[in-house]
Write a structure and sequence with these properties.
This protein has 291 residues and is mostly beta strands. It has no helices and 23 strands. It has one domain: AttH-like fold (Beta Barrel), CATH 2.40.370.10. It comes from Actinomadura luzonensis.
């Protein structure tokens, strides 16, 4: 893992030249949670140049459940050279743009179901994965949702390369605790243990890699019940509050479930907070080792 200096990889905020593999994709995530956990959501733009389409997801939840969503798995790719990566579909238009590399990024959505105009501002640094081309950025988030002011926190990430949604399961989690500490951890179920990507950011401080990160999930049927995240010297339990799931169908009609959820996080030292966790479930996921 590496902590990315702001002067490094400046071009990686932009679109990459695609590989030739059918499952090559470029992915941008933006998630957000109000400070009190009463409103949250996420946006994902996935570019699939070899399929000649884009996937666009935008979901909004409250503690009562899914409040609104825009899900399009057949959006036209953004026009070449469009810095805002604009996508349009039935009843919606969406765009996103980063200004200074690794600085603020703005996301807009106008739709029949949901309207967003939000800005993610980097808080504490940028974290680059070593297992795959990807980086994560903890952020403060401000703007408007359906025209009403919003202030909270979240994370944005950017990855590119081959992603097989229908063969590998994983857990990914991101949160901020009540004292301002950001947490992030991820692990894939590959049948072996690896130095998994994870970091913490202390209140007002700088991002630091969390070596030795581990996670264990329990399920209630197919639905995740809780995940215990173990950072150096700290265990934190993530429990789902409201799900915003997506179903993914491959060109060969394989079906994967993607139960992403707003979670409440409770640390063993008494701190608490909110964030997002995902537990990807491809075909046969129960045979994978969810540790």
């Amino acid at each position: 893992m590496r902590i990315v200096n702001m002067g490094e990889w400046p071009l990686d905020e932009h679109v990459h030249e695609p590989g030739g593999e059918p499952l090559w994709n470029e992915s941008y995530y933006f998630d957000f949670v109000a400070g009190d956990g009463e409103l949250a959501g996420y946006v994902r733009l996935g570019l699939y140049p070899n399929w000649k389409r884009a996937w666009y997801w935008a979901c909004l939840v409250t503690p009562g459940g899914l409040a609104a969503s825009v899900i399009d798995h057949d959006a036209p790719l953004p026009a070449g050279g469009d810095p805002a990566l604009t996508v349009r579909g039935a009843g919606y238009e969406a765009s996103q743009q980063a200004g200074e590399p690794f600085g603020a990024a703005r996301v807009r959505l106008v739709s029949d179901a949901l309207s967003l105009d939000l800005e993610w501002r980097t808080a504490g640094g940028v974290y680059g994965y070593s297992l795959t081309p990807r980086y994560e950025i903890p952020c403060e988030v401000t703007g408007t949702i359906d025209g009403r002011p919003f202030r909270g926190h979240g994370e944005r990430d950017h990855s590119w390369g081959v992603r097989d949604w229908w063969s590998i399961s994983w857990m990914w989690s991101s949160a901020r605790l009540s004292d301002g500490t950001f947490l992030h951890g991820m692990r894939a179920n590959l049948g072996l243990d690896l130095p998994w990507p994870a970091f913490t950011v202390p209140p007002g401080g700088e991002l630091a890699h969390a070596g030795g990160f581990a996670a264990a999930t329990t399920f209630d049927g197919d639905r995740p019940a809780e995940t215990v995240l173990r950072f150096p010297g700290l265990a934190v339990t993530a429990r789902p509050v409201a799900f915003a799931p997506v179903t993914l169908v491959s060109p060969e009609n394989a079906v994967a479930a993607f139960p992403r959820a707003l979670c409440r996080f409770e640390a063993e030292d008494g701190r608490s907070g909110h964030g997002w966790t995902e537990w990807h479930q491809p075909p046969g996921w129960r045979s994978h080792a969810w540790v």
